[in-house]
Amino acid sequence: MPETEFAVVGGGLVGMAVAYGLQRRGHQVTVFDEGDIAYRASRGNFGLVWVQGKGAGMPDYARWTRLSAALWPEFADELKRKTDVDVELTQPGGLDLCLTESELADQVARLEGLRDALDGNYPFQVLDPGRLRGMVPEAGPAVSGATYFPEDGHANPLFLLRALLGAFRAEGGRIENGGTVSAITPTRGAFRIETERPWEAAQVVLSAGLGNAKLGPMVGLNAPVKPNRGQVLICERVQPFLNYPTVQIRQIGTGSVQIGDSKEDVGFDDTTAPRVVAAIARRATRLFPLLENVRVVRAWGALRIMSPDGHPIYDRSTEHPGAHLVTCHSGVTLAAAHALVLAAWIGGGEPEIPYLETFSGKRFQLSSAA
Amino acid sequence: MASGSNFHRLPEPEYKRLTMTFDGRTIEARSGDSVAAALIAAGVTVTRTTPVSGVSRGPYCMMGVCFECLMEIDGVQNVQGCMVQVREGMSVRSMAGARTVSDARTPGDG
Predict the structure, then answer these.
(1) What is the CATH number of domain B17-96?
(2) Pseudo-torsion of CA B6, B70, A271, A196, nearest 10°?
(3) Which of A186, A193, A362, B74 could make an S-S bridge to A320, C-beta 3.0–4.6 Å?
(4) Which value does ipTM take for this structure?
(5) Does any domain span residue A195?
(6) What does pTM read for this prediction?
């Protein structure tokens, strides 16, 4: 007799959104969280609820991202009602700032490609420096322009994780902090979860971030995810000067400024590197010269969970029915869709959207078999 | 003490008397005092309000860690008062909420 209906392996933003979504639909869920030795992308990320530019080469990813952004306001309200945690969501539209004409031209070409792939329904705007300064007066003279997308926004990722944990518990969900899940063994229509002590679950959801690469094949699923490091700087609180989130910099309501859009392939090294921190700071001061005199109070590195094409993987095992896998590098943006839509699919409901199969990890098997 | 402070100074054999101002009021200090120490010795306990909830804050850890004693010193905002020694004639101001960013000076630029 299984001890839990669903074992969700991984208690980050992705795992908690799915776990909460399942629990609120009446399933009985236990989350297995690794503890503080985990890489914790959920505690290091930038906090954007971002649509702009996502989905090149996979228009369904753009559709899915936009669905989540559209669901976010009601999702934030629901979390506030259930936990009293305000996740600080605002969606005023977002900017991708460019420092050269060619950077802007590339960016515009990418968004035009997405607009074509989405049959013209992709309302981005190109801002010349004059229009940009009308919206963001503090943008520096080096800024050559920007693209604006009205559905972009941001939220506080730490409050989001706290709210998901609270809402999940309030619905009766259980969290086990028993350490690493070292193996998952299919056993006669159920799954044995090897952790501090073995558990038996009727179904399993792998949401272990980078750990999915190892755990997936144990239940017949393919998730060739790799780490990609981003470094983030936090500045002292200053008076509001930036009313829109940007890819590079955002300012939260209480004044702190968060900077960082670095991407590095450095394996499992989640430390900071002075050279990269300096480059992030230099670029930030060209975008916003007033930052030259603002102090940095913290910096950290965190590992993105990247699939070979950068898009999410959602899968369920045909070899071992009841095993599911969820991974993405946009746990904040997609949290609403994960909780409200994906969880219903995992729970066995009819898919509310027709394209979830597009995200199967099978799309990588041909190339990885070579 | 006349200052009304709960803090009392240890007897010091030698010091120089210095004066500074806090929000325009004259504060007596001694050479070697940090700005935060001179203020609490003079009975000043609130040096700012927070950007998050607007509640009052003043010097707390006195060793550069807690960042509660942020104040404006000689025109520079968000300076840790416990990490700066009093100089004669220094002008110190309390802060309300987050610092402004039009101020183009950093601590140490004088």
Answers:
(1) 3.10.20.440
(2) 40
(3) A186
(4) 0.81
(5) yes
(6) 0.91
